[in-house]
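Field reference: sequence -> structure
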Amino acid sequence: MAIGSFCLVLHGHMPYVLRHGLWPHGEDWLYEAAAETYLPLLATLGECRFLNGNPRVTMGLTPILLEQMAHADFKRGFAEYLVDRRERAVSDRREFEHVGRLHMAYLATRWEEFYRSLAAQFEALDRDIPRAFRKQAEDGFMEILTSGATHGYLPLLVEDSSIHAQVRAGIDSSERILGRHPKGIWLPEGAYRPAGRWVPGTPWGAPDYRLGIEQFLSGEGLTHFFVESHLVEGSRAHDNGHLAGASVQEPVWVTSHGSDRPTVAAFARDPHICKQVWCGIVGYPAEGAYLEFHKRYGQRRGLRYWKVTDSKSDLGAKDMYYPDDVERKIHEHAQHFCGQVKQRLWDYHNWTGRHGIVVACFDAELFGHWWFEGPRFLRDVLLTLNADPDVELCTAEEYLQDHPPEKWVVLPEGSWGEGGDHRVWANDKIGWFWQIEYRCETLFGKLTYNLPWRRDPKMRDVLQKAGRELLLLQASDWPFVISRAQAVDYGIKRFMQHVSRFELFADVAERLVEHPHQPHRLGVVQQSEIKDAEIHDVVFPSINLDWWNT
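Structure field:
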């Protein structure tokens, strides 16, 4: 009989980039993720099943990622991308053969086959990656989590209506594209806030009492979410709960209000286990034999031919990649990882006599995109633990059903970002961001409260477009890339584009009140801007203004 469970949680997310540029920032981000992470992960599950394994993966697919991968533009553009990459490999091979660099020519041949295989897999899936994940869930091998619609940073939003809308719009996308109501949610950036007195991160209005994030989730039928370990370890037992002191090896009921029995549980990410993989210095991907991510041959869309060599060396000191050297390393690292999982479970079992869980949460793109060999590592981990009688593979939903939490806790505020708090998304560099964002939230609340959109179809259509832009400008990705000095210009440009379009639709809505039968009063520039927004922002096709009702 198993003494504990292992839950692999992968968080798949991509900001909205469809129809917003290609390279270096834009659709290429999405295509790279699909080619190097999402298709390989599907293939990994297929291989495990072929080998009579019984894999279990809890997969977060954010609504904005689903919206993009389900769109016809993605399906066409990704197919073209795979052709382009294969042609790049052929061109590289011919060049290397011409100058006698035969090992690089051999690696180029492998890239050629890699992209040929991906193209065949994509076509076999009828170019529908979300449906392939849905099939894994229907077959019982995967739980698919929802998230905030555009990955909005929920604890810092100033209006409760905005949190409701992010969660409800996210659930709507998951239901429409995947055909099922999700039970679990990946909170954007793992960010949580309990109920209580709340002060905006930037000067805006007066402090106010706010609901806890778990209260928003409970109202939408969601039953569990995931947090960084320090939130559970720093929690305190609720007066009506049972036992004090929570461990990352057990989920907990979350409550920050009254004496109502809680219905939403939190799973804590196991820091010791996760560090084995994500740490760029001591983690497995730092192994010298693995493919180096940062060094590419040529410029745009260059392919990779070098190995890590030494994680501390500069790119000029990288040696050639030798694929035959990595299989034993993958096996070695997978076995070490599985041993660490078992040790954590045995330690908890020996300490408490109970069945515990190790929850390993990672960004999905770590596997395949950042760490090329990552999907094969996961294959070996899933097959090894599946064959181990001491460990039970499970999804988070399965674990809750079989082992409901025994403790009620009040979680502190925090995230899985640097410092464990909100500092990455709320700091002096981006105070201006929140000033603008709060103004948009407040204005939209006034418009949807005061304007007659329920009885005026034209008004409703305009406010739906404004709501779409509000969701898009709230994405946590924009303050993240600005704060971390990654693609700063792109982050500012995209945020301000959505702000500008939001303000345009807000202005049009107010004009409709003044001149309901004279749409010609819109200038040529405004009409052009409306068409531009309709061309570029094509996700969330059925905006429901009731999402913002609290």
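Note: The first helix runs from residue 27 to 50.
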